[in-house]
């Protein structure tokens, strides 16, 4: 089953996210110009000289709307933030996944209204992870690979 209960033989969103996780996990330590395929290739770089990139940020869609995840920062105020951009941490065989919220530290908007209102120039990991059912998503957009962990 996939979005809206329709039968599908493949779940392309989970397949792409699995490829991203595999590519990200291959990093030591931790045809289109912009596409998931190109972002994965950029992440892997030339095998003789690593790219220095560690994350393919993704934007997911459910029922044709951008998906926004929420979490609580580990700060004194326990600030709740939302994000449309994620780093895939793990994809399980049952099409569930762990996603980490990505944010630009300069972005003061804790709850952006849509992806165009969220800054992406300097996306970084937040330490906030959420669990999702990939069968609920019908579209994935990959941003260019970035160095989000350091």
From TrEMBL:
Keyword terms, alphabetized: Capsid protein, Virion
Protein name from the UniProt record: CotY/CotZ family spore coat protein
Organism of this sequence: Piscibacillus salipiscarius
């Amino acid at each position: 089953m996939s979005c809206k209960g329709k039968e599908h033989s493949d779940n392309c969103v989970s397949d792409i996210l699995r490829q991203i996780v595999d590519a990200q996990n291959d990093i030591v330590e931790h045809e289109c110009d912009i596409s998931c395929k190109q972002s994965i290739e950029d992440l892997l770089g030339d095998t003789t000289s690593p790219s220095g990139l560690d994350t393919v940020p993704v934007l997911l869609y459910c029922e044709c709307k951008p998906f926004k995840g929420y979490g609580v920062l580990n700060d004194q105020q326990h600030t709740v933030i939302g994000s449309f951009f994620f780093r895939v941490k793990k994809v399980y065989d049952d099409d569930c996944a762990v996603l980490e919220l990505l944010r630009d530290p300069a972005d003061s908007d804790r709850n952006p209204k849509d992806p165009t209102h969220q800054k992406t120039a300097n996306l970084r990991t937040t330490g906030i992870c959420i669990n999702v059912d990939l069968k609920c998503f019908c579209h994935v957009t990959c941003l260019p690979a970035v160095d989000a962990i350091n």
